[in-house]
Amino acid sequence: MRKVADSTVRRLSLYLRFLDDFEGQGVETVSSEALAQRGGTTSAQVRKDLSFFGSFGKRGLGYYVPELAQRLRQILGLGRRYRVVMIGAGKIGSALVQYRGFTQRGFDIVAIFDNDPAKIGTQWNGLTVLPIDRLEQELKAQQVDMAVLVTPGEAAQSVAERVVGQGVKAILNFAPVQLNVPDDVVVKTVNLALELETLSYALTNR
Amino acid sequence: MRKVADSTVRRLSLYLRFLDDFEGQGVETVSSEALAQRGGTTSAQVRKDLSFFGSFGKRGLGYYVPELAQRLRQILGLGRRYRVVMIGAGKIGSALVQYRGFTQRGFDIVAIFDNDPAKIGTQWNGLTVLPIDRLEQELKAQQVDMAVLVTPGEAAQSVAERVVGQGVKAILNFAPVQLNVPDDVVVKTVNLALELETLSYALTNR
Question: Which of A43, A205, B87, B94 is the 20 to 30 Å CA partner of B42?
């Protein structure tokens, strides 16, 4: 398969959200124009994005919603389960373990770690918070696909190195730092503070 | 001032986080190398980023932490207050009104809207949830700087057009869609589902 840009994958995800809505409403076909509007792009871009993965749709009829949705789920890797560890049992971590989007997309949190003695041993969604010292041992014992980092900024890089050292290839990072990882590890950072500061920058400097 | 790239502003925000930590620890000076490491970049990039905004630091001595932090806060527009409306009083909205990062960065939520009769009239952090029909009226009455959209995907574009129509120039969007807005409106989208799907894509297609 050709190398597909991150921006393409993000649009596929947006198209799928739209197709899910349509499927729920019983809509059977959708045009590339409608998908384009939802993805903030053009119908030519939609056709190009989908062409990476084969041939879809019929000229003049558009795309068959259940088929395209199913194919996008496959492409996006949503047909299997992923084992996830969460590192950091603070406020954001607490919101995240309850976030249904994880399990809906196949991400199962199998262990939670913290270094705070007050948190270690507490129960979170049926999981006991483990001491961070146990990280390597658990990563070795369980087939872990992804780590969610919810540590303070100053701890994030060293924790990232520890999980990468045990072969984890994907990190969802909520710590307010850029992580340096090898090229074969994929990192997505969600940083609300940073989004707010780019907004206050924009509001102040126009 | 020259047009500054979004990526530069994001790094300034990361540097500031780092400087805040250092200030808390009583550290007085910091090198461009240390800032670079935290920002996932090079010291040359740090110097370039800061050079947009004037002259900082002394050769061989590095940057004076309190001074640079204060200057970055000014640059990022963190010295003033912003009036914010939140549209959508669901689960994410509920987590967001409690998020201290908003007030810490000068963002004050002044009104919350929903279209669900079960939510309208309820109290959220001292604010009464208003019917969405009142949106234009409130935006006219209050000097609103930013809207936080926490609506379902299918409602987001039309709500965005309504707030933009009343002169709001900044949107923080949690709805799982790309918004089409005029060029003078800045939109930041936080979409956890999309981040997860780019991660599952990467895990499946390598």
Answer: A205
Q: Which residues on chain B are in Cβ contact (under 8 Å) with A144?
A: none
Q: Which residues of A touch B146 (CB under 8 A)?
A: 199, 203
Domain of residue A147 covers 82-195
Would the pLDDT of B3 be above 80?
no
Task: Say yes or no for a CB contact (<8 Å) between B178 and A40.
Answer: yes
User: What burial letters (b/e) apply to A116-142, b meaning 16+ CB within 10 Å?
Assistant: eeebbeeebeebebbebeebeeebeee
Chain Cα centroid distance, residue B25: 26
Determine the length of chain B. 206
Residues A41 and A101 sit within 8 Å (Cβ to Cβ) = no
* Chain A residues close to B200, C-beta within 8 Å: 76-78, 82, 105-107
Q: What are phi and psi of A6, to 5 degrees?
A: -55, -40
Distance CA B101, CA B122 (A): 23
Interface test with B, best of A30, A72, A179, A198 (most B CBs within 10 A): A198
| Same domain for A87 and A26 | no
| pLDDT of amino acid B77 | 94
pLDDT level of residue A168 (50, 70, 90 thresholds): very high
Do the domain assignments include residue A101?
Answer: yes
Rounded to a whole number of angstroms, the distance between the first and last alpha carbons of chain A is 43
Question: Is the pTM here over 0.90, yes or no?
Answer: no
